[in-house]
Amino acid sequence: MQDKKINSRPVFFVSNSTGITVETLGRSLLYQFSSIQFESHSLRFVDTAEKAEKAVTIINKLANERGIRPIILSTLVKPELRAILATAEGVYLDIFDMFIAPIEKEIGCKASLGLGRVHGIGDDEYYSERIDAVNYSLKTDDGIGAGEYAQADVILAGASRTGKTPTSLYLAMHYGLKTANYPIVDEELESPLLPASLKSHKEKVFGLLVTPERLQSIRTKRRPDSQYSSLPQCQYEIRQTEALFQEENVPYFDVSSMSIEEISSNIINMLNISSRTFLP
User: Fold this and answer.
1) Least C-beta-crowded within 10 Å: which of 92, 114, 127, 141?
2) How many independent structural domains does the chain possess?
3) The domain containing residue 223 runs over which residues?
4) What is the per-residue pLDDT for 8?
5) Are 158 and 253 found together in one domain?
């Protein structure tokens, strides 16, 4: 069988830190080319000339082996390191150059590029909000800590394995929202009413659904050949939770084909959170 990597386009994500920014933005851009298969390589903590030169060597080696120019996406801060990386045998795209220069021109102010600024670490208040929100989401994960729901900004509800936990943590980490999540279990599905612990916080509740087939696929990986992962059980739980959400007028949506980012954006939109003022 032919190696799929031979026919894929290599992409290098190069950063002087963790690579979160360049990978997040880069993958969002590459997802728009759904007919192309990309092979990703992350070169993180490239913060010296020696490491930049080593990155160039790695990129050039792969370019020569494959006979195709890799795509290079970079968020290196130091101009001298960016100059080294730009010599690599690939399509070099510097994200800072693309976006920082037009912003500088528009606002008439030079960017203070520096390590640690990419993720707004200097914004101490927002950073603390996110840490507090993550701690809260962990403390109220999977239905525990229901007594803390008064502090919640959002409570995600739905059948088990519908993406509530990862979405809760994403909302906490990226938006600083205290997000609890509650799995609606079998005995609670017999009634078309919200469980008591959710009832008094109904205005904060958002429902997540997936198709029964998608739920079965997810559950089978966790507990194969069980009642929990059987299609009839999944069909029952999704049917009942949707009926519950409709009866209680709880906003909900099908997240079967959504990424965590898309789910979170939908929730943010429903909460009417359109902006946040911050200082870098």
Assistant:
1) 114
2) 2
3) 124-270
4) 87
5) yes
Distance in angstroms (rounded) separating the CA atoms of residues 97 and 175: 26
Please tell me whether residue 232 adopts helix, strand or coil conformation.
Answer: helix
pTM over 0.70, yes/no: no
Same domain, 172 and 73: no
Q: What is the pLDDT of residues 148-193, one digit of tens each?
A: 999 999 999 999 999 999 999 999 988 889 999 999 998 999 888 9
Both tokens of residue 14? 């190069």
**Helix, coil or strand: residue 94:** strand
Please give the Cα distance from 151 to 153 (Å, whole number): 7
Residue at token pair 């078309």: 192
Q: Is position 277 within any domain?
A: no
Q: Is the residue at 276 inside a domain?
A: no
Residue whose tokens read 């101009």: 79
DSSP state letter for 223: S
Same domain, 9 and 85: yes
Query: Are 10 and 36 a contacting pair, CB within 8 Å?
Result: no
88 with 54: CB under 8 angstroms?
A: no
User: E strand or H helix at 79, and its extent?
Assistant: helix 79-85
| Mean pLDDT along residues 224-240 | 96
CA distance 138 to 277: 26
Return the structure tokens found at 194. Answer: 């919200």
Tokens for 235, please give them. Answer: 């069909």
* pLDDT tens-digit series, residues 64-94: 999 999 999 999 988 899 999 999 999 999 9
One domain, residues 101 and 237: no
Q: Are residues 164 and 67 in the same domain?
A: no
Rg of the chain's alpha carbons, rounded to an integer?
A: 23
CATH code of the domain containing 101: 3.40.50
CA torsion, ordered 7, 10, 11, 17, to nearest 10 deg: 140
Using the 3D structure, point to which of 57, 79, 107 is the last residue of a domain: 107
